[in-house]
Amino acid sequence: MFSSARHFSSAAARAVSVKTVPVAVESVSSLKVVVKNAGSKSASAGLAHLLSTSAFLDTTEKSGLRLKREAELLGGEYSAEVTRDALVLKATFLKESLPFFVNSLASTLSDAAYKPHELNEIAGPYASQVYATESANPEFKALEELHAVSYRSGLGLPLYYDGSKSYTNEDIKTLAKEAFLSENVEIIGENVNAADLEKIVSESKFASLPKGNDVIAQKQPTYTGAESRIRQAGKTSAVIGLPVEDASAYELVAAGLISSVPESFSATVDSKVLSYEGSNLFYFSVTSPNASEVSTIISAAAKALKSTDFSKYSKLASLLAGKEVAAKSVSVPADFNLVVVGDVDAVPLKSEL
Amino acid sequence: MLSKRLFSTSSKQLSKANVSKLGNGITIINKPSTTSKSSIGFYLNSGSRSENPYNSGISSLLGNLITSSKSSKDALTNEGVKYYSSNQKEVTGLLSAVYPSGNASGAINSVKNTFSQLESIINDSTNLSIQKEKSIAVTEAFENSPKDMVIEHMIGTAFQGTSLALPKYGKSESLEILLSEDLKSYLQKNLVSSNLSIVAVGDEISHDDLVKLASELPIPTGAKTPFEPTSFLGSDIRLRDDNLPQAHAAISVLTPGLTDSASFYTGLVAAQINGSYAGINSPFSPFVGSTLAQFLEEYHLIDSFDHFQLAYSDVGLWGGYFASHNVGNYDETIHFALKNWNRFSTGTVNEIEFSKAKAELKLNLLKPAECPVALSEKLATQAFALGYVPSEAEISAEIDAVTPAAVKAWAQKYLYDQDIAVAGNGQIEALFDYNRIRNDMSMLRW
Fold first, then answer.
1. Same domain, B200 and B310
2. 3 state SS for A228-280
3. pLDDT score for A20
4. Which of B96, B197, B305, B421 has its CA at a distance of 20 to 30 angstroms from the CA of residue A74?
5. Would you call A72 and B360 a contact, using CB atoms and an 8 Å cutoff?
6. Cβ-based contacts of B80 with chain A (< 8 Å)
7. 0.90 exceeded by the pTM?
């Protein structure tokens, strides 16, 4: 813990990075702690998900029960989420409770106990519940498979714990020790005073996290031309995707595909560029209870991908991406990956698209 | 001094909603926002409560027609402006246009264009028949979501025989028979100046821009048709379905509406005391402080529950929703929940539960809205019902003003030994009959 004399030089002395963003509300603040190198790409399959579901449980100082009750009393809520790149801890609370939540988030990183019974009774069952809920959705399953065929390792690892491996609390503890280094941690405060946040962070356990080398985003080897088809009851989902270099160009492609496929009654169509450290993954997906509709729309999208002039979609792309996307011409490579989940016979093969 | 004063108010200006009423009755609201997307929306103070059993669903059908029209598609592809529509009991979101920052002019031009084509949009019989089918599909999908469905049926049985009982999304049998003519007369009656609110969320469209836009749109001057008065009837409705894995029920009592803000906030605090319980969908469920959650979880009587204070302009419903797969003991789930409600009347809710409820309620009411459309609907609803939009400081003050004595008085008046509206769905063999549930609303021994 830093002595109070070091407050003024805290930004230089601390490797944890702190950012603040304004929000148009007065009374509620939120904190987001992004821990790079603790996402699903950086650990053995599913382990990072278990690490995230183990957050906010017992620490050496405070039980998970006490933390929950204290947060309720102060008017605050917290959650942990795993992404491919990072572990993301979030807390939303009434403005005046900032010190409490900075300290709680800090101790869940620095002091978590990772007890065996917590993994068996809370973190494990909850992780399985999340996996079961998500994979009942064929679009999620198809996107997971798209990651797997596009990247094979790293970003291609499953996002959630699927039960195919078994882990103990010691595995989680080891991952936490490796990943929770001060250079990996970024704190983003919404509607908080920057100086206050800096000061509280420098006095919290964030300041005493072990130092470690900054993660350098390494370029992932990528693969195109793959096809994967998974039979499953329920809705049918088809996804065309490819790893791309220029994310903003493919925001235009996403907009162009969404507006050029035929209108449909029951199908949901989605197209996005997922930006990760070291790679971006573009996809177009269609999901419907009616497999022949999926077939029509995915064929139309594959055709549009080859023939459309995407430069004119900058306005729609700006809306969908939530940021300014400039018009430019895009050359889409001829080959892509295709994943189909559901009634796979009704959807054409990649060579037929 | 002057500059200091300006700085001290600038953060307040950031979040304040400006509301004004034009000479012809149109309500204009704008609220600054820092999100990447902004919106401009048109809200009618009509909703499903302005419908009747023969045109039930017409408000949401109208919204679907507009969002699926050619001008909506043009706005999306050419301008990057997406249209949404929504329908509530007393407010219809006719059209809410979401645009990325920097494109306010595109959004304004698109909505102007859509308003100028309104007549051809409702006369487009091909799209009308497609949208009728789609609206019917929405009403059917709604029936498959047990929580929304039992709460809607609970409102339906509570206010049976009045227009407040009509479902938000309409009924398939009335949607089927609607014609362009019906839409035209509905619009003539409801799209009038004093029934309309124009809401902008974001920094790009100023209050003056909205006033200018309002004057340019072809909105006829006219008075709002008042809502038909409603009446509460203690009753129950059951849709037993043994193919569902759980039992679902919603139970509520009659309370005052939005205009009685003291009762409204007291009801909200009371609802938050037991709050909600997410079961296996939250890792922190075993730790929650609500006594009801602890009790029901310990005895395996619950999967999830929620408490609510629904409020319309003149009336409200306070109650809870309970889902359990332990269908054989579902009578106990309901019995112990209602016995827990009795604590409000006896004044045996403790200090800690009380401050927890108030802090959580502040968080829930004051946290930033997730999307501009939800925010603008909330602003329009408040402006229609109250005539103003309460600021954060006002909401905080209202919550702080709720005392344990106020909750006790509120509960003795509206909750203790009062008639209830009950709706059940799923495996509800063990959901007792009306009188036995009604008996739990009072106590044999105080």
1. no
2. EEEECCCCEEEEEEEEECCHHHHHHHHHHHHHHCCCCCCCEEEEEEEEECCEE
3. 86
4. B305
5. yes
6. 255, 314-319
7. yes
